[in-house]
Automatic annotation (TrEMBL):
Residues 1-140, 222-271 form the UspA domain. Signal peptide: none annotated. It holds the Pfam family Usp. InterPro entries: Rossmann-like_a/b/a_fold, Universal_stress_UspA, UspA. Belongs to the universal stress protein A family. This is Universal stress protein.
Amino acid sequence: MKKIIVPLDFSEQSEYALKVAVSLAKKHGSEILALHMLELNQAMITSTEGFHPEQTVFLIKLAEKRFNDFLKKPYLEGLKVTPIIKHYKVFSEVNEIAAEHNAELIVMGSHGTDGLEEIFIGSNAEKVVRNADVPVLVIKNEITDFSIKRFVFASDFKEESIVGYNKAKAFASMLNAELDLVYINTPGDNFLSSNDIYTRINNFIGEVNEALQVEIYNDYSVERGVLNYSKNNSADAIGISTHGRKGLAHFFMGSIGEDVVNHSKIPVVTFKI
């Protein structure tokens, strides 16, 4: 893992993410790309109507100084840290920066969201997850020495999920973590009989050509099942695939991956498929 992107907004949560990135960078010899996105939109930067250009320049310089001061942390000493500043918030840019710099992981902090705010606004982490092609590791709390021993990966084990499984396996191998595979069975239209579940899992095993052990866990929703199974099995982190749905498809269908990111207390890694 050569490069890790860490979006920073000076919040406690973003510093939690930075400390996790530092733990990973020290273990893997990685460069940290510290990304700050200013609260200035493109119209404010380019328009002279009602806003003086010198004021814009002043705000940018002020934010740049604050960002550079923020990065003067003792725990960053000895690491290669490259600051990147963008002058307005477009969350697809995080993915573009990852592609431009060949970054292999995005680590970001989140406090999560609930209720109407989640439906109509969503968390910044959710927006990054929706756009990112590389894995996104979401951190909610401070972790002094980040490591993962038990990594739960939840999947529906359909053929399209092979990509997500391969990414999760590679991530677990990189961190020397035990990969715990689980299928969440729910009531209603998505309910499968035991025979149907084993048939699907066996077909998946045949496609990946590996000897896999998959747990089957019953709950009222996939999200609740993932969270409850992870808690009951003392998982250190959760991995889940996401389709990165946008627009009306996202509003009406939602994303289980994004819901887990918002509500999990332990770190979550999303893998786009």
